[in-house]
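ok so for the tutorial part 2 we go from a plain amino acid sequence to predicted structure tokens. step 1 is just haveing the sequence, like this:
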Amino acid sequence: MCNKAFSQKGHLITHQRIHSGLCPYTCDVCNKAFSLESNLKIHQRVHTGERPHICDVCDKAFSQKSHLVTHQRIHSGECLYTCDVCNKVFSDKSNLIRHQSIHSGVRPYICDVCNKSFNRKNSLIEHKRIHSGECPYTCDVCNKTFSDKSNLLRHQSIHSGERPYICNVCSKAFSQKGSLIRHQRIHSGE
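step 2 — the prediction. this is what the tokens look like for a chain of 190 residues:
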């Protein structure tokens, strides 16, 4: 097989399931099978909604410890993954891979209505809402609807009064990034 060595027989038996494909642990909700009991327990959180791993900085909760560790890099500023083309850094590998498609030009997701192509499946799904008119995101304050979640979140700052975008020259605060960018032209003389 792979000649990997183990100090305990039980660990060897568990490891051999990788090679044999044996998956003796089955989810009683969706019948998905796992080679390790620990992986089954983590999977079952999909059904229970349990999120036992909590960020001590922002209280965001996660179903897996590895997701918490990746999230915490946002707070620490730790970036382990670097794009070999432009040297932009990322806190997790999936974001690096998503970013690298910018350089490769690979856009495998194509709209069947207008043939516009996208490098991410979610981008295609959001784009198709232009054609369908679907607006699945609704503001719980004023019932205005939006085709994507980011526009809803941007809109909701109107109701909350939150102004997270701050000018680094004069400290004036804005609820939307675009407003800050327009404002900064005053300082740059554009």
